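Lab notebook, bench 4. The sequencing result for the construct came back, and we need a structural model before the next group meeting so we can plan mutations. Quick request posted to the team channel:

Model the 3D structure of this chain.
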Amino acid sequence: MRLPEGRRIVFLDIDGTIIAHDGTIPDSAVAAIREARAAGHLVLLATGRSPRELDPRVEEIGFDGAVLSAGAFVRVAEEWVIEHTMPLPMVRRMVETFELLGLDYALQARDGVHPSAGRREDVRQLLSLTDERMGEDAERAPTARIAKAVFLGTAQDAFERVHALLAPEGFTVITGTMPSLGTGGGEVSPGGVSKGAAILELLEREGIDPSRAIGIGDNNNDLEMLAACGVGIAMGNATAEALAAADEITGAVHEDGLAEAFARHGLIARPRARRDPAAT
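Done. Here's the predicted structure in token form:
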């Protein structure tokens, strides 16, 4: 991966950054990403979604690579360059906890998403997956290749209960970063695996100084990314924690916040100001 002199490398979250919480993607975001890449900047995804959970509309925009499953997998073009799967004892302990608490869940691997038994259709709809992108049920999942899990809780205290059991044992447990997970849902990864850690590993591998990196996100699984990049930018719709961790704040998704941030840093030409019809 070559970064030309004077160009930047940009890491973009998906949900709440490229895709609004109503499921739409602003045209301005698509245009900004494509214009930046055409100018020689590198633009990569950095998401908690697994490879099989990528929205086809996002993939069609075109990217130079992706940090996936919150840092477990990194792809540059079509080559997988980093992989951090969960040790088997951790997978077993995590699943044991979900089942103890009566929670539905889905295990993320590079080649599929594996739902808990009997809830395949619910998980498919909640995560907006096609049948082709679903893997075997969790009981038959390739446990040696699991990187992360999402759990689906309807009770308000589901997250707190998972966090209380798993966080002291070296897991990272965060609230759900996709609206479909609900307020009781969340995500579980091994401690030390994060978007930020994967980005730093990738930059070192490619010989790119972190000062040339820009990270843009909106949620709590973006905090390490915002700190790792030379410039961390929070969307206007970001969580309080992400807003506090960022170096800068841009507009919300539907306020053309992504294009605004790209223009501010010279990745694209600044768009013309919109005309106010009332002024004519």
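The chain has nine helices and 13 strands.
Will bring this to the meeting.
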